[in-house]
Design brief:
Length: 231
């Protein structure tokens, strides 16, 4: 086992096992968001690369299929560990099993197939993700729903979206447009002049060019967009 970096304090921090493209992306995003990140891989080259690129605070070269190596590196003390080993099914499953048997509260694992997903769930993974599949879905949504400025999928059926105020809503109050009663959607924020107002007053008037942040079922979102030809 080869350790790189200073002494690690694991409180409120993340560990990422597997430093391929997906693992690097997770490390970089968490690190850029201000979290301390421990990255691990069995290849010294990848360990050195994430440190050189400043994607992590700490990095360890280890074999994650060996429980003793995980224990010595302190992986079992983390609240959340991301298993980003997607293309080596056996290593992914054994690593996930090692973490859960050691009592790690939250293990998020990358899957490369439906069978892989089922096996990861069987050994205790708390969340299984399909990065390539989800990226494909996001591309399809951007092509079929260009009116959406930004979106966050809460699960396969519900999302939060940013969308421009439809022309039909111009100069009407939030209460008058009836997003909840007509479409089953909830307006959780309104952006006017580059400023966000959280849970805006129902009597506030909407203006053309304002941005609505809406939460609801994808079917209701699509129905709303189609009804108003939002572009």
């Amino acid at each position: 086992m080869l350790f790189r970096g200073r002494e690690l304090n694991v409180t409120q921090q993340f560990a990422v096992i597997g430093l391929g493209r997906f693992g690097r992306g997770v490390c970089g995003t968490l690190h850029d968001s201000g979290y301390e990140v421990l990255g691990t891989d069995n290849q010294e080259r990848l360990v050195n690369q994430v440190l050189q690129d400043r994607l992590v605070n700490h990095a360890i070269q280890l074999d994650s299929t060996d429980p003793q190596s995980l224990k010595e590196a302190g992986l079992f003390e983390f609240e959340t560990v991301i298993v980003a080993i997607g293309n080596h099914l056996d290593a992914s499953i054994i690593t996930t099993l090692n973490l859960k048997e050691a009592g790690v509260p939250k293990v998020i694992a990358k899957a490369s197939s439906e069978v892989h997903k089922k096996l990861l769930e069987r050994v205790g993974a708390d969340l299984v993700v399909f990065p390539e599949y989800e990226a494909g879905c996001e591309l399809a949504r951007s092509l079929t729903r260009p009116a959406i400025l930004d979106s966050l999928a809460l699960d396969p059926e519900k999302s939060i979206i940013e969308v421009k105020v439809p022309d039909a809503f111009h100069n009407k109050t939030i209460m008058e447009v009836g997003l909840r009663s007509r479409y089953g959607l909830n307006l959780i924020a309104l952006r006017c002049d580059q400023k966000f107002e959280i849970i805006p007053d129902p009597n506030q008037k909407l203006k053309r060019g304002d941005i609505m942040v809406v939460i609801g079922a994808n079917t209701d979102i699509d129905r709303f967009l189609s009804s108003h030809h939002v572009t």
